[in-house]
Amino acid sequence: MTEIKVPVVRNILQANERLAAENRRRFDEAGIFVVNLMSSPGAGKTSLLEKTIDALAGRIGIAVIEGDLQSSYDAERIQKKGVQAVQINTDGGCHLDGNMIQIALESLDLSGVDLLIIENVGNLVCPAEFNLGEHEKIMILSVAEGDDKPVKYPLMFQICSVLLVNKIDLLPYTDCDMSKIRERVGQLNARGKIFEISCRTGEGFAPWLSWIEEKVGEHRTLRAGKQS
Ligand code: MG
Ligand code: ZN
Fold it and tell me: Quick one: DSSP state of residue 144?
């Protein structure tokens, strides 16, 4: 039976690639920079969003798509910041896909949006395989998870252009070795950037915010070029 199973999986991923490409065209037409934010549960995705929104609000138009198994708890946290947020409940599904993003986009007003952040379902496995149409994949690893995660979940670390190592304020209380994280991730993904941050204290946020602002600026320029 395995000879049947393999083509089925490939077809699902191919169908998803088509939808992701449609999403990407839409984002590029609107000149919006889109990131797909991934991590295991509890690494700090929503906390990162809250801190990032606080820092960029007023200068950058932000919208958020929140993926969760159940509940609209995270989208409510984001809406409290005065930012458009749509919740996708996957009903137990462990990743977002291109089709879910298309449906979520129907509920968003993209005019005035420069940056769309998609918070994926907390999971280090299959979110890495489903493109959503984003420009960049970003991952958060908290030091509480340990420095062995790049060895255990290599694909996720390979495909991300930015790794945010969060909760660095907890480093003295863990066995996590930052130099091991850097070495292991560097072997998988030499071009990826690594930023060490604490969403709780705000430490290390400046390089991350500069990176986002630079990317948003590039996409705004593309939009301006189209309009002239
Ligand atoms: Mg969350
Ligand atoms: Zn999944």
Answer: G
pLDDT per residue as tens digits for the range 81-133: 999 999 999 999 999 999 999 999 999 999 999 999 999 999 999 999 999 99
Report the separation in Å between the CA atom of 75 and the middle of ligand 1, taken as the mean of its atom positions. 8
CA of 93 to the centre of ligand 2 (A): 6
Query: Alpha-carbon distance 59 to 16, whole Å?
Result: 33
Taking the centre of ligand 2 as the mean of its atom positions, its distance from the CA of residue 43, in whole angstroms, is 18
Q: Does the structure show a pLDDT above 70 at 3?
A: no
Q: What is the mean pLDDT of residues 142-153?
A: 97
Alpha-carbon distance values, 177 to 149, 168, 174, 181 (Å): 12, 11, 8, 7
Q: What is the pTM assigned to this prediction? A: 0.93
Q: What CATH number does the domain containing 34 carry? A: 3.40.50.300
- Residue 196's SS3 state is strand
In 3D, which of 101, 32, 25 has the Cα closest to residue 61? 32
Of the listed ligands, the closest to the CA of 90 is: 2
pLDDT of residue 85: 96
Ligand 1: distance of its center to the CA of 44 in Å? 7
Give Cα separations from 2 to 6, 130, 227 (angstroms).
6, 22, 51
> Between 2-30 and 98-105, two packed helices, what is the crossing angle to 10 degrees?
30
| Counted domains in the chain | 1
Look up the domain containing 126 and give its range: 2-227
Chain segment 206-221, per-residue pLDDT in tens = 999 999 999 999 998 8
Report the separation in Å between the CA atom of 38 and the middle of ligand 1, taken as the mean of its atom positions: 10
